[in-house]
Amino acid sequence: MTTATISLDRAFGLYRNVSDEECTARIQAARAKLGKSTVLLCHHYQRPDVYRYADLTGDSLKLSRLAAQQDSRFIVFCGVHFMAEVADILSKPQQIVILPDLAAGCSMADMASLVKVERSWRELAAVLDPDAEITPVTYINSAADLKGFCGEHGGIVCTSSNAKAILEWSFRRRKKVLFFPDQHLGRWTGYKMGIPLEQMVVWDFDQELGGLTPEQIRDAKMILWKGHCSVHQMFQPQHVERWRAAHPKGFVISHPECGFEVCKASDFVGSTETIINTVAAAPPNTEWLVGTELNLVTRIAEEFKPQGKLIQFMAPTVCMCSTMARIDPQHLCWTLENLAAGRVVNRIEVPEPDATQARVALDRMLAVS
Ligand code: CIZ
Ligand code: SF4
Question: Ligand 2: which residue has its CA nearest to atom 1?
Fold first, then answer.
């Protein structure tokens, strides 16, 4: 198959008005034509009208492993930008990774940039020797160049599935951790490892020296970047309290991107894989309040209904990951039909040297977890 890249906007415009029904038929036809040359990876947070086409599903850790194992020429990644970057870094050089809508980003990932992290590293150097005393740890929800920064500075990547093992690895190497971009995942993981809250300080990247004093930095074990997920911050402890009053025998399970008080009020805290596996393994007729993205909660509520399980979404308002939702049947149809016609659109290709340095940090993570 010959390949050529065509411009996104001009080409996609025609697809905007294709009905969902027509998309279904056209996606199926394109997939039949592409056969084994194309694999479709889908994150748990994808909308149902896209998720149903997945060959393989998972959280970002599982999907990054799966991406590395594929033999197909094309990997169509239904998720967000940083995940497609990881797939590109870990896949074979001849493989091509495609993100159906390039606007599918992650607002949390956008809260840390290489410029800001490098500036922090320089500022920290006024107080201590960062390369000897701090392991930089980036949540996988970050741009490839930040993973590259970690690769270059003796650091590592983590996901919500392996954060504890990664922090243990990090503290075996150096006495402090700079954790970005999600303060909540960092704080919750540190707290569960027994690090006192007062030894976890927040680095406000808009202030000089992160808004901290040199003493605070010297006393800290973890320096938490002031980033968060706009979806998971919607969940509040009072949602848990109200639900518990109505469901005294129920269980509460939350994602560690939720705020500290929500995690503390929950019976279980874990990644999307953990949430799905915990609810799946629970006895029939149990009741669950789940604090993570709406598409996932709606899907498992349906899936486990036949077992008599009641699964409810934590927030009273609809809060879904709007960037994940950018991948719709129209973009998927456009991508697949172009591929079937021999044209690659929306390729995600991490440039060098970022790709090599990021691979160092990702390989460290895969070896630890
Ligand atoms: O790591 C992931 O896939 C995300 C974004 C959430 C989770 O916990 O699975
Ligand atoms: Fe990013 Fe939050 Fe969406 Fe996850 S749910 S992809 S952290 S914005």
Answer: 106
pLDDT in tens, 17-69: 999 999 999 999 999 999 999 999 999 999 999 999 999 999 988 998 898 89
**Terminal CA-CA length for the chain:** 37
CA distance 250 to 267: 10
Q: How far is the CA of 139 from the centre of ligand 1 (A)?
A: 10
CB-CB contact of 293 with 320 (8 Å): yes
Site residues for ligand 2, CB cut-off 6 Å: 45, 80, 106-108, 141, 229-231, 257, 293, 321, 323-324
- Distance separating alpha carbons of residues 166 and 169, to the nearest angstrom: 5
Contact between 78 and 357 under an 8 Å Cβ cutoff? The reply is no
CATH 3.40.50.10800 given to domain 3-105+323-348: yes
| Structural contact between residues 323 and 104, judged by C-beta atoms closer than 8 angstroms | yes
From the options 3.40.190.10, 3.40.50.10800, 3.10.180.10, 3.30.420.40, give the CATH code of 109-230: 3.40.50.10800
Q: Is the CB of 272 under 6 A from ligand 1?
A: yes
Give 134's DSSP letter. E
| Residue 326 Cα to ligand 2 middle (Å) | 12
Distance 251 CA to ligand 2 centre (A): 24
What average pLDDT does the structure give for the chain?
95
Atom of ligand 2 nearest to the CA of 79: 6
Q: Residue range 207-228: average pLDDT?
A: 98
- Return the pLDDT at 282: 98
Per-residue pLDDT at 175: 98
Cα radius of gyration (the chain): 21
Ligand nearest to the CA of 110: 2
The pLDDT tens digits for 278-311 are 999 999 999 999 999 999 999 999 999 999 999 9
Which residues share a beta bridge with 177? 135, 222
pTM: 0.95
d(Cα 155, Cα 196) in Å, to the nearest integer? 23
